[in-house]
Specification:
The protein is an alpha/beta fold and 450 residues long. It has three domains: 90 residues, NAD(P)-binding Rossmann-like Domain (Rossmann fold); 190 residues, Rossmann fold (3-Layer(aba) Sandwich); 118 residues, 2,3-Dihydroxybiphenyl 1,2-Dioxygenase, domain 1 (Roll). Helices cover 32% and strands 24% of the residues. The protein contains 15 helices and 20 strands. The strands form three sheets. It has an eight-stranded mixed β-sheet, with helices on one face. The protein has a seven-stranded parallel β-sheet with strand order 8-7-6-9-10-11-12, with helices on both faces. Helix 7 links the parallel strand 6 and strand 7. Helix 1 packs parallel to helix 12, helix 5 crosses helix 7 and helix 5 runs antiparallel to helix 12. The two termini are 47 Å apart. Bound molecules: nicotinamide-adenine-dinucleotide (NAD).
Length: 450
């Protein structure tokens, strides 16, 4: 597979792709037209943000199997058109999410503690303590909009600060143990510090405008490490002037170009930008939240891993009928004459954190998501295990219940009853050859956390 490396990246990217068997060619100087002219020689291209990959480019890339973006978002690529052409799209948010989480935290701590202002004052011979009295994060509510890779990373970093972390997302059920998902109204009612982590799309474009800001009940601080276009800077400045927004940490600016060119070249600065530069209520950085020594390595490694997984993995050779079935034990259920007595015994002697249902054990699955296993004693006259006559029943967690049931049906496995759906997941029951009734559960563990 011949791969064009269109930007400079960590050298491991080239070395490891070559170890996989790719022939890599580096060209980070030719312009887009020159690259378009030769792109049909390549099966893969690895790019950061040097130019857009649009329809015209894709039409010329007749042999392309993948486009890998060494970064989080894919907005510089015509994703729909590339997909239509059967081109795999690879991005690497896993590589810079930790950096973004730490940067967002660093920015707000810097603003709360006047570090930028105080540092400059000391360098100018001023020792002003009362003027630089800081604020603490403890007890504040942090509202995150967009709870994906970056939002989750920020919420994880906030653990230990004794803050209340809530999020709003256009997708349902994204909340986890670090952050409770709420409606936009609730977020606007409770937030003290708003942090944006949305990708560029129609809804996030110009999202933070005067009307949106007015809907916040309290004065608040803003952090934007997502995309500059999410905030109308004129409206932000108006809100800073009236103190509705008390301060802003901006790693991204509305005025940035996609290619991250120097903002100060050949341009008179917009008025609002001039205000931000002079204000002590702002902390600014040049789109570097995801830009660390470590993320350079992690981004490159993530791209290599994903190329390997998609094009060189042995698992590709697995038969198509193989898919992830059971992912863990979801429950241990057994009969007893006296469930309440037994729960008390397990609580006293084994420290079980019991409730009406028994005890829930929490652990992390292979995707680092919180997962639970239920331990429950049932009254001995229960018919929940029937038609099995056994004293126990196991519950297994499954990745895709409907797909698994369809496969089991083909294999002649006995099904008991119909699928049942609850806000904490889908359930179905089967019998094994020993007559044991098995409960299959496609879980939604987050429902237990809300
Ligand atoms: N400053 C930097 O250096 C830097 C680095 C990496 C990523 N980013 C930015 O962070 C963005 C998010 O990256 P990610 O990897 O977390 O993306 P992601 O796709 O993993 O998560 C984005 C989340 O936002 C939600 N969402 C989308 N539009 C929304 C809207 N209008 N309102 C509410 N929720 C919405 C999605 O449902 C998703 O859960 C990137 O697109 C990029 O713009 C910046």
């Amino acid at each position: 597979m011949k791969v064009l490396l269109a930007d400079k990246n960590h050298p491991l990217l080239k070395t490891q792709l070559e170890n996989l068997g790719c022939v890599c060619e580096e060209d980070d100087t030719s312009n887009k037209i020159e690259i378009e002219a030769k792109i049909k020689q390549y099966q893969g291209i690895v790019i950061r943000s040097r130019f857009d990959i649009d329809k015209q480019f894709i039409d010329k890339a007749t042999n392309l199997k993948f486009i890998a973006r060494v970064g989080a978002g894919l907005e510089s690529i015509d994703v729909e058109y590339a997909k239509q052409k059967g081109i795999e799209l690879i991005s690497a948010p896993e590589g810079n999410r930790n950096a973004v989480g730490e940067h967002a935290l660093g920015m707000i701590l810097s603003l709360f503690n006047n570090l930028k202002k105080a540092d400059l004052e000391i360098r100018n011979g001023k020792w002003l303590r009362e003027d630089n009295r800081g604020l603490e994060l403890e007890g504040k509510t942090i509202g995150i909009i967009g709870y994906g890779n970056m939002g989750k990373s920020f919420a994880k970093k906030l653990k230990g600060f004794d803050v209340n972390v809530i999020c709003y997302d256009i997708l349902d059920n994204v909340g986890d143990e670090n952050c409770k998902q709420v409606t936009l109204n609730e977020l606007q009612e409770k937030t003290d510090v708003l942090s944006l982590h949305t990708p560029f799309n129609e809804l996030s474009h110009n999202m933070v405008n005067t009307k949106f800001i007015r809907n916040f009940k309290k004065q608040f601080f803003l952090i934007n490490t997502a995309r500059g276009s999410a905030v109308v800077t004129d409206d932000l400045v108006k809100a800073l002037k009236t103190n509705k927004i008390l301060g802003a940490c901006l790693d991204v600016l509305e005025y940035e170009k996609l290619s991250f060119e120097n903002l100060f070249e050949n341009e008179t600065l917009p008025k609002a930008f001039s205000y931000l530069i002079k204000s002590n209520k702002t902390v600014l950085s040049p789109h570097i939240a995801g830009w660390t020594v470590e993320s350079k390595i992690k981004l490159a490694q993530t791209i290599v891993n994903k190329v390997e997984e998609k094009f060189f993995s042995k698992s590709l050779k697995k038969s198509k009928s193989e898919f992830t079935k059971v992912t863990g034990i979801g429950g241990l259920f057994f009969k007893t004459e006296n469930p309440d007595m037994l729960k008390k015994w397990y609580k006293k002697h084994l420290g079980f954190n019991t409730d009406d249902w028994g005890c829930t054990f929490w652990w992390k699955d292979s995707n680092e998501k919180k997962a639970s296993t239920q331990w429950s004693p049932f009254k001995s006259d229960t018919d929940y295990f029937s038609p099995s006559k056994k004293e126990f029943m196991f519950n297994y967690r499954v990745a895709d219940l409907k797909k698994l049931l369809a496969q089991l049906k083909k294999e002649g496995v006995t099904n008991v009853g119909k699928i049942e759906e609850y806000d904490y997941g889908k359930f179905a029951w089967i019998l094994d050859p020993d007559g044991n009734k098995i409960e299959l559960w496609e879980p939604l563990d987050t429902a237990f956390l809300n």
